[in-house]
Amino acid sequence: MLESSFGLVFFMKVTSNDRKIRTVYFRITVDGTTKEASTKRKWEYLRWDQKSERAVGTKEDAKSLNFFLDALTLKINEVKTEMMYSGKIITAEKIMDHVLGKVQPRVKVLEEFQKHNEQMKALLGKGYARGTLQRFTITKNHLGAFIKFKFKKGFCRICQNQI
Q1: Is the full-model pTM beyond 0.85?
Q2: Most exposed of 54, 109, 140, 159 (fewest Cβ within 10 Å)?
Q3: Sequence-distant (≥ 6) Cβ neighbours of residue 25 within 8 angstroms
């Protein structure tokens, strides 16, 4: 799904008592919603061009920072393009999570429920009664029927941050 607006900005914030050295941040804006994060890089305020959003100079440290910022820009654009091609809704939060590595694998609810029931079956007589297992099995069956009714599928995926 195409977004109506997308923006990426690099800027500096004062984070310590030293006013000359500042931390470089980046901000992603999608459809008016913004998310920002630190690049974990510090730079001299006087050697920063706000208009070009890059370090000024021909020294190796300036070239290194600019290369890092270009690589970060490329990664953000790759994530955005991948989301667009796969038909996912593009949001600033989703892009930021991908860039920062916060994307967690999704699991199927009914598969996890079945694993739980099998573990419980192995513990029958060691803290669990047969009636408890029967109730959990019935609950799993009802949940499966609800997922088929509500989502028109035989499965439903969840990830850790949805719980």
Answers
A1: no
A2: 159
A3: 10, 11, 12, 13, 36, 37, 38, 39
